[in-house]
Amino acid sequence: MAESTWIELLEVRLPVDRILAFVSGDPALGGIVSFFGATRGESDEVHGPLLRLEYEAYRSMALNQLEELTQNAMRRWGAGRVAILHRLGPVGVGECSVAIAVACPHRAEAFEACRWLIDELKREVPIWKKDVFADGAMQWVEPDPNEQRA
Amino acid sequence: MEIAVLFLGLARDLTGVEQVSLTLSNTSSVQALREVISVRFPRIKSALPTIRFAVNQVFVTDVHMLQENDEVAVIPPVSGG
Predict the structure, then answer these.
(1) Contact residues, chain A to chain B, C-beta under 8 Å
(2) Confidence at residue B35, expressed as pLDDT on a 0 to 100 scale
(3) What pTM value is reported for the model?
(4) At A130, which CATH number?
(5) Which residue of B has its CA nearest to A68?
């Protein structure tokens, strides 16, 4: 049987084509949903435009938790293939920092599983980002539960 | 007992260290560790209410009892994605 999960923290651009290829091709899995989160261009009144985000992780725990979330999604929604990749280090404006792709028998489960995975990742997985502005200022991003910041 | 404590993200910036070994009494909870950390590193005090602790890479509550050789991580609010 082909490998059914792909979990990785990486310091290079996300391999979008390979991620989609990984979750495709199983004749039992007819619904495939993917989410890509990218760095939004923003501007701060004091520090000027955002240049990039800098990500870091508590690697071993983050990988364990992503594995656990993936297993949950497989049990709960019958996901047959799951890919979760997150970048670490600098991620420029417009570049993707996170990719989640899920293949399920049908689309309803695939949408739900994908949404649940990104929401849980943002709530529970020990990964952090810093804003880096044009004037050199850096600050940790304060998560706001009401903001859908990708 | 000696406990190795990792400071991550904002917690590392506030304490100025990545890892420290702290001496605690043999029956110490995570709550007791919070107090030791806030005395040793006063700059982290205001952030402590939002900080979570993981022991051996699993989130725990303040009543969790620590054991020798535990890997304890000080985890500020996460912001992945």
Answers:
(1) 37, 55-58, 60-62, 64, 86, 97-98, 118, 121-129, 140-143, 149-150
(2) 95
(3) 0.94
(4) 3.90.1170.40
(5) B58
